[in-house]
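Input structure tokens:
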């Protein structure tokens, strides 16, 4: 505006405007890669445009179990209210068809007049609703009851009792399954916040730590890992989430792990590993790399199969680090210090890929390896409670 009036030169105004642009606005930082599996195990996948919604109604029980607690309790309450109102309407119609309502309105209903109603003490829809609740939940206050006058009333009584039992079984089963879901047990299965890459046995290894906070064991526990990244086939097909399995070396051998104390899960990076060409310079937040860890097993107390999941992005992998020992021997038993569960220390590690390390073995000679770590044993020095001294003769 000042340049239009001729007060300031136009070149000066443009120069000041360029200088006023903040430095951060010129360069936009690359966004972090979206997770496929969250740190808490939740899958970051949104299902959209599902046309066949009726498939969820074919498995009503699983659909009810998967709902939120607020929705489950709402359906639980509405199912009883709707059934009570439905049968209350049926009882009211039976009483209306039999003339019970007209007879009670005219002041009848005395034992001497010879009229026997279908349901005693049923005068309005409100009393029919109360009778419906008494029948379905088997309260039985004693004021209202069905008589042998109407066979249809006996049939309705049987149908309502059976319907109430079915609703109770379904809804209580859903609540029980929601409280005993397998992922509840997975809350006490923990993983280290970071994964590490270090030398073990002369080779680069990808390692993480897993532990169980409960004393009850996970039976037949097994662990597996996958690398998820975007790949392109030689034919030009783009696979946005290509999953490649990672071979593991379990600490106790075999296909399962004995998860009594925290274990360090190790994967040797060799020629068959998808991390064979991984370099330290690639461990940035925007790199297209995610390692998914899945722990499965049977809960010892309930016998339900549980699964715990986590993932590590590129910037959550520490190159040249190693987990600190957390198991010590105290008073004849092993003690685990979970305050150091995710702690790591730097160790000498070659800054090259596993391929380069395998092709050039002289790289390892330039790396000064640290001494081996052992399980620490705390020694307790006992103070003598008495002293022995020579008595003077």
């Amino acid at each position: 505006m000042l340049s239009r009036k001729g007060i300031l030169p136009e070149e000066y105004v443009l120069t000041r405007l360029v200088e006023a642009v903040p430095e951060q606005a010129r360069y936009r930082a690359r966004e972090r890669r979206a997770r496929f599996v969250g740190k808490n195990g939740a899958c970051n996948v949104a299902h959209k445009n599902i046309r066949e919604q009726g498939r969820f109604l074919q498995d009503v029980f699983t659909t009810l179990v998967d709902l939120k607690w607020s929705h489950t309790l709402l359906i639980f309450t509405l199912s009883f209210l709707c059934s009570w109102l439905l049968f209350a309407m049926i009882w009211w119609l039976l009483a209306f068809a039999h003339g019970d309502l007209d007879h009670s309105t005219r002041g009848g209903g005395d034992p001497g007049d010879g009229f026997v109603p279908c349901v005693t003490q049923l005068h309005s829809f409100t009393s029919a609703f109360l009778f419906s609740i008494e029948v379905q939940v088997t309260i039985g206050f004693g004021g209202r009851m069905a008589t042998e006058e109407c066979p249809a009333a006996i049939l309705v009584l049987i149908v309502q009792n059976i319907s109430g039992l079915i609703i109770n079984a379904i809804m209580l089963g859903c609540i029980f399954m929601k409280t005993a879901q397998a992922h509840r047990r997975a809350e006490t299965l923990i993983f280290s916040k970071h994964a590490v890459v270090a030398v073990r046995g002369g080779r680069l290894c990808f390692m993480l730590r897993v532990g169980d906070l409960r004393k009850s064991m996970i039976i037949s526990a097994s662990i597996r890992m996958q690398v998820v990244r975007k790949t392109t086939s030689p034919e030009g097909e783009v696979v946005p989430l290509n999953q490649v399995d990672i071979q593991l070396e379990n600490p106790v051998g075999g296909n399962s792990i004995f998860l009594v104390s925290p274990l360090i899960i190790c994967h040797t990076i060799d020629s068959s590993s998808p991390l064979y060409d991984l370099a330290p310079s690639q461990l940035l937040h925007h790199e297209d790399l995610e390692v998914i860890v899945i722990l499965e097993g049977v809960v010892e107390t309930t016998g339900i199969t549980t699964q715990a999941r986590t993932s590590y992005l590129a910037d959550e992998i520490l190159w040249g680090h190693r987990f600190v020992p957390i198991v010590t021997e105290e008073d004849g038993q092993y003690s685990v210090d979970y305050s150091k569960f995710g702690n790591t220390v730097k160790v000498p590690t070659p800054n090259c890929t596993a391929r380069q390390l395998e092709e050039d073995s002289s790289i390892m000679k330039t790396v000064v390896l640290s001494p081996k770590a052992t399980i620490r044993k705390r020694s307790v020095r006992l103070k003598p409670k008495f002293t022995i001294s020579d008595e003077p003769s």
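The two ends are 115 Å apart (CA to CA). The chain has two domains: 67-179, 184-377.
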